[in-house]
Write a structure and sequence with these properties.
- The chain is mainly alpha-helical and about 350 residues long.
- The protein folds into two domains: about 5-270, Orthogonal Bundle (Fic-like fold), CATH 1.10.3290; about 280-350, Arc Repressor Mutant, subunit A.
- Helix content is about 60%, strand content about 5%.
- It has 16 helices and three strands.
- It has a three-stranded antiparallel β-sheet with strand order 1-3-2.
- α5 runs antiparallel to α6 (about 110-120).
- The longest helix is centred in the last third of the chain and has 28 residues, at about 250-275.
- It is globular and about 75 Å long.
- Mean pLDDT is about 90; it is low at about 345-355.
């Protein structure tokens, strides 16, 4: 009585098939993307890890201020409370996911280890457990049998998932989403099933050809579309117990954000190939010229995620020494202001009544 058991009832409509065609054109050039970005791969993946950590905290409303969040992610400052320790655990978990995704194996113990890795010393041991369930009747369903722990149900679910992958009858992301909804409804752990479920969804997509999420933050796209994602996840769980879950709207959503991610990586590749022919510092200066009169380093990173912090800092220092820009404050989140004429009708430094030399 679950999604994977009843997946053969699914009828894939034509618009979804067209989405498959379009997205697999992009998946087909994964190798080319890796080859093109190989020299800056580590920088770009590190930025993805930072973004995944940042936006995961937003999805689940982890109580850490933006200033502290940036310090934890970028500066390795010491955490002051459990929420801040969780942020560091998340960053380390995403780092491990990216380093070891080629060797990842879906097993109950691996999933349980992920739960403990994230929440050890944050939740009591009594919360870091598989749920206990009473014995069911002899009726054969996914949630029946002689199990007294949800670990047995999770083992059966994983077995079903691997069988469906091996059958090769359905597109892999559709099988993954069926597994995801089953996992949420089985609710195997005492707590944090939604958090672990989302990370599993991410890992399974990443390790099944959706390699774009090495460069484009999956958690950012989920956070931006959080309301729609939560709505489609809830809708997919309606009638789950009866075996009539409606997965297709969630499937359309995942295909949509995956397609958007590939559009982003295609644009990034074009910019990267263009940048490779230019001096990186000069290219950053050209970007600054196009930014608003007041801007931040994050504005530059959004355009050039593959350029290192040292190159950005070196460019800012050069422009500051030549009195073309001036810092407005100190620290990583400090803003900068241009000290030269722009196309704006009224310059921000005029509004601030700053005297220029």
């Amino acid at each position: 009585m679950n999604c994977l058991i009843n997946i053969d009832r699914a009828r894939i409509p034509h618009d979804v098939i067209m989405s498959y065609i379009n997205i697999y054109k992009s998946i087909g050039i994964n190798h080319y993307n890796h080859e093109t970005l190989s020299s800056d791969y580590s920088v770009m993946v590190r930025q993805t890890i930072n973004n995944d950590t940042h936006f995961f905290t937003k999805i689940f409303n982890i109580s850490v201020s933006d200033a502290r969040l940036k310090s934890l992610i970028y500066k390795d400052v010491m955490p002051k409370n459990k929420d801040e320790r969780l942020v560091l655990n998340l960053r380390n978990a995403f780092t491990k996911i990216h380093k070891e995704n080629s060797t990842f194996e879906l097993l109950p113990n691996e999933i349980f280890d992920l739960l403990k890795f994230l929440y050890k010393d944050i939740l009591p041991d009594s919360k870091l457990q598989f749920r206990k369930v009473a014995k069911k009747s002899n009726k054969i369903t996914l949630l029946s049998g002689n199990f007294t722990s949800m670990k047995g149900h999770l083992e059966e679910l994983i077995t079903l998932y691997k069988e469906k992958i091996k059958e090769n009858k359905y597109e892999v992301s559709f099988i993954i989403e069926n597994f995801y909804i089953d996992f949420l409804n089985i609710n195997p752990f005492v707590e944090k099933n939604n958090e672990i479920g989302l990370i599993l969804l991410y890992i399974l997509l990443l390790t099944n050809s959706f390699e774009v999420f090495e460069y484009i933050s999956f958690m950012r796209l989920i956070a931006i579309n959080k309301d729609e994602f939560e709505l489609e996840t809830r809708n997919a769980s309606f009638n789950w117990a009866e075996g009539y879950s409606q997965i297709l709207p969630l499937h359309r959503f995942i295909l949509k954000i995956s397609s958007y991610a590939y559009d982003e990586i295609n644009e990034l590749i074009r910019n990267y190939e263009f940048d490779s022919q230019l001096n990186k510092s000069n290219n950053i200066e050209n970007t600054i010229n196009k930014l608003p009169d007041v801007f931040s380093k994050d504005d530059i990173r959004n355009v050039h995620p593959y350029i290192s912090d040292s190159t950005i800092n070196r460019t800012l220092k050069r422009l500051r020494d030549s009195e073309r820009i001036r810092p407005l404050g100190k620290g990583r989140s400090a803003k900068w202001i241009k000290l030269y004429k722009t196309t704006n009708k009224k310059l921000i430094y005029e509004q601030l009544d700053l005297k220029l030399r």
